Amino acid sequence: MPEKIRFFPVELTYRIENDRAVIHIFGRTEKNEQICVIDDNFEPYFYVVPKKGKDVQEKLEKIRVEREKEISAVTRTETIQKKFLGRDVEAIKVYTRLPRDVPIIRETIKEWDIIESANEYDIQFRIRYLIDKNITPLTLTEAEGDFVSQRSRVPVFKAVNVKQYSDDSLEKPRVLAFDIETYSPAGKVIAPDKNPIIMLSFYGENFEKVITWKRFKTSLPYIEFVDSEAELLDAFKNVINHYKPDILAGYFSDEFDMPYIRTRADKYKIKLDIGLDYSELKVKHGKAVVSDITGITHLDLFKFVVKTMGGTFDIEAYSLNNIASELIGEKKMEVNLDELSPVWDKNPEQLEKFCRYNLHDSALAFRLCEKLLPNMTELVKIIGLPLYDINRMGFSQLVESYLLKQAPNFNEIAPEKPHNEAIKQRRMQTYKGAFVFEPKPGLYRDIAVFDYRSLYPSIISSHNIDPGMLNCSCCKGEAKLTPIEDEEKEKYWFCIKRKGFIPTIIEDLITRRMRIKEILKEKKSPLLSAREYSLKLLANSFYGYLGFFAARWYSIECARAVTAWGRHYIQDVISKAQKAGFNVIYSDTDSVFLALEKKTKKDAEQFVEKINLELPGLMELEYEGLYPNGIFVSAKAGEAGAKKKYAMLSEEGTLKIRGFEMVRRNWSPIAKDVQEKVLNIILRENNKEKALNYVREVIKDLKEKKIPMDKVVIHTQLQKETGDYAAIGPHVAIAKKLKEKGLEIGAGFMIKYVVTKGKEKIRDRAKLPEDVKEGGYDADYYIENQVIPAVERIFNVLGYTKEDLGWGEGQKKLGKFF
DNA sequence: GGCTCCCGGGG
DNA sequence: GTGTACGGGAGCC
Prior knowledge:
Strand order of the largest sheet: 19-21-22-20-23-24-25
Number of helices: 23
Radius of gyration: 30 Å
Structural class: alpha+beta
Number of strands: 28
Helix content: 25-40%
Strand content: 15-25%
Shape: globular
């Protein structure tokens, strides 16, 4: 008699056992125990769409391909009525024995001239399983079968039937956060192959631990001493095995902690078999590095923050410190990490504070995970992919995964991913973007900002913008033409009789979100606001997706139509604002900035209300806020317009800075300092004279060599061996000289240099800081190439000349504003 | 004006 | 592995 169990799937994979693909679903039962449910009843397949009147089926069934002594063959085929971009097609569902046969078979038929296309041959087998079985990870699922005996860290249940049971979801997955500290002398680059891990910390529910392999006196109960790095790595495994987390969370752990741990374990030939099936921690080096443990979801919170949440907050860098302060209001512990290695070598009695620092980072990762998990979980529930995947996906992938999940409900076959040629073609195509009302560069006071809520999604829905609805023969001459202004482009339309696949889906997302917002007005719920946010995120990503060259449902006509209608609607607000007597100073895509001047905040709010009364159902203009001070600058020196480059001071006193590209580490500290200081003086103190004098002072100090050397040191890392460079930049020139001196200089080394005076190329004037005596730097270089570019756009709008800055005649030309 | 190289995060 | 996913700025060539 088969047994029934219920569980929350967390992660899944597949293995080949006895020549069959077996899905392994890892999860937690209702009784809160970890489990692995296996299912060998799912066949790999893909679709073939034959050309009209061609008999393809028989030929398909005869395929046999030999690769590396393995035979790939089609096991059976089915003819099936499907839709492709809204059109009815007769497709063949082609089954194979193993998942890996799918791409092989597709490869052998791709040149056949009797087929229209092959489709859905590149959907991962585990994802195909979730889609076809309609199983959503983290959501209560029922399996029918029996427990079997199999080598595994958790009980294994062999299922004959697996199906979604209810909408209940795993409330509290078990989370363990971790972080490592490594031996890393000051100024030296991080080198996993050379330098050991010296500390490792974990933070979980009622659990904190720091493991280190140098002993010192401490009363901290969570510190555990071991005798070597190899023992520390063993402890890493043991802690995970005993804690039994569903989720192992880190910050930048995909690309730092995990690869580091992997490299160190390999050095000692330690098996990192922490997978629930005893498989090893896998670090995969692709374009981005990802680290994967079978059965345990490894989350890299950095990736989620950067890829998905990024746009929502206003920070200059995605460091753990910034993100933690922004999201959970906590900072990292202040510690000078340059001291860690010397202390480790010479003063181990001082290691305790580094242990606390190490634990605190894990604690931050843990709380960040708690904070972000509702957002990720909601995306899991909406899109239907495991957490692991959601964590690492960008917007386009989220949209595409959602469409792939929805396609069967509409009986749609997914289009192929574009291949090389198509991508090249698509990349060359351009279209007109959003409308930008170019501001007159300058300083403004009392700026009221409005924006359309979900402008593009509501356009896609209300204008039925969909690749399959384009230029239908049924509505020719009847449907409204897309309002593209470009005369050379042919006008086109979208069907008004049928609703497209994408508009249907997006409308569903918008209305679901609206319902949630209604509930949220009544009472707060973190869960619902996470869902609301996820729905918004997803809906907002469709437009970009339609114009993304690598998208399956790519359609430049659709993308072009969205921006065309967008321009139409924003221009409408602008003209109405002007008619109402407002001074429109700036507008971009879906937002309008008004300088209030003689009008009041109340006038602005009333204006928005009035606009909203006239807007069709889904569309809404929002009052974003009032900014007492703002500066709008031109994009490049001398250029008139200024797209997306402004800084404003909010009523709450925070600076909102847009478009001033981050001055990064390969800039000198003096350039960073000056940019930040100038914006602050102008917006907070409202004193351009003071800002001017400040820069003038800095320029003077540079010329008089009063700015200390450490403010002009530029850091650049060598990315490859010195001999491998085609172009010799300043840092490469330095590296070559160092090498000639017999120093060990290779890829990864951090080069610090100072540019000195001379007429040669910059690379010939770049010197090591220690080879330049105090004041030996080239003041002109730092003024012209560092300080001035950092503030040029700002002073641009203030209209000062170079004489005003004390950088007068007879000097090298600096651009007309100085 | 193209092409090449670097940055991010982490210690 | 039912494969190939950044995007923008500076300096050399």
